[in-house]
Amino acid sequence: xxxxxxxxMFQALGPVTIKRMFGGKGVYHMGRxxxxxxSDEMLLKADDVSAPQFEAAGARRWAYEGKKGKPVNMxxxxxxxxxxxxxxxxxxxxxxxxxxxxxxxK
Length: 106
Description:
Layout: H1 3-9, E1 17-21, E2 24-29, E3 32-38, E4 41-45, H2 51-56, E5 61-65, E6 71-78, H3 87-105
Antiparallel strand pairs: 1-2, 2-3, 3-4, 4-6, 5-6
């Protein structure tokens, strides 16, 4: 995704900062990371509070193969498909990601 597409995706939050990381990009709002782009897929931050909502919507949790071949689950989830067709639905998901980022600081 190019930066303009990312900014449009997160417009419900307001301005975002995009930084290169992990061979992809990190998306920040108000200094908090809310999403990462990995292998051309945007993944939103979630936590114990919001992850069940992502799972119920059919999203997938990002995991990578760690040492000894064991999967390492990360706190990032795919964006539910219906969000890409509806800015209001996308706004809900990106707000959940920001709320998870705020809770992670505490």
